[in-house]
Amino acid sequence: MAIKDRKERDKLDRRKLIIKSATKLFLEQGYEKTSIRSIADDIEYSPATIYLYFKEKDEIFYEIHEQGFRLLNKVFIDQGHIADPFERLVSLGRLYLAFGLENPDYYDLMFIMRAPLTEIKCNSKWIVGDDSYGYLLDTVQDCLKHQLLPAGDPDIVAMTIWAYAHGLVSLNIRERLQSLSADVTGKDHLMQSMEYFLNSMKV
Amino acid sequence: MAIKDRKERDKLDRRKLIIKSATKLFLEQGYEKTSIRSIADDIEYSPATIYLYFKEKDEIFYEIHEQGFRLLNKVFIDQGHIADPFERLVSLGRLYLAFGLENPDYYDLMFIMRAPLTEIKCNSKWIVGDDSYGYLLDTVQDCLKHQLLPAGDPDIVAMTIWAYAHGLVSLNIRERLQSLSADVTGKDHLMQSMEYFLNSMKV
DNA sequence: CAAATATACTGATCACTGTTCAGTAAATGA
DNA sequence: TCATTTACTGAACAGTGATCAGTATATTTG
Description:
mainly alpha, Tetracycline Repressor, domain 2, 2 domains, DNA-binding
């Protein structure tokens, strides 16, 4: 049965090849411009072949979507050592902002784009995102315990903070801040805003 | 020269006809599914005709984009009578949230979608959005004057509040809240979040 | 070993998209 | 009356995601 095993490995390899190429093209030119044909061209297979490994275009990009979350988790993971909960929260905020600005395409896929997750998938695998949200929730709960944030339901508080951070990043990515009366574009102003936000929240 | 006038009026009428049809189809089925051909079908003209009145698809949807801002302005405009600045701010927040949830397609076009505003247009006409932002900025300045919000640059403060509200609405529209550990979906939870946010900010 | 079957892949095609352009028919101006 | 402008269109271009009958190779079975 070794042959069968090898074949299965080969099949997975080809799947990975597709994802690798798709990721490369995606980071170069974004989701919309990365066509099935361009991926096929890149890996030197027929477009039809890709549909033997993925049901639809979205399924390929769901993998990249997951990669993005793994990336964000990696960024978050070694903040646990910060003892002060509020300091940890500040650090998470900074990192989230930096992640969004440095990986706008990943961020887009993860949080802005019309979800590439039709059907059941949504329940079964969205869980990857839970890790990142988990860090936030834990930190928020710590802050609440030490009364560093105004009392409230931890989930509501975490969602509130996330909503703020997401709003900041996504307004920036989609260039909605350029029209404001004052010029608040640029990373400095975004950081100023985040400091203002967190300091205002601090009890 | 009356004939020429009539002709110009007719031309504007046809332009309006296109926009009207585009709006109808857009609100029925969203941006992506509203094709030039479907608009042409609806108004019983050839697809090519549409390009005599609009340079590109985005130009049509820029009009709808403006309609959206006029709608939001109309919602905001009669909040000026609320005397207490902070109460006014709360009211603006509520209205913004309600607008986003009740008009997700408009909201999408206005604040989420990859901007349908290539080139110069961005400088010349984005100003429509300034009205709505103006209400927010005025209210924020009032709040700062009466020390109802933590001191800070008015533009940064306004942007911070807007970012929060936008984050809340857009995470909801793009269904990113469903994956959270607790079920924070639903208008109630969003309102709870907004109350928590604004109360936390209040000095 | 030979025949039947399973695997991996592809070219062609479908139905769609935004956009362009040569051509037409009618209204207008000289 | 004839030239010109105006308003419009059919057909096409180049691209998209997706499908499917067909093919060539490899494996399993009698």
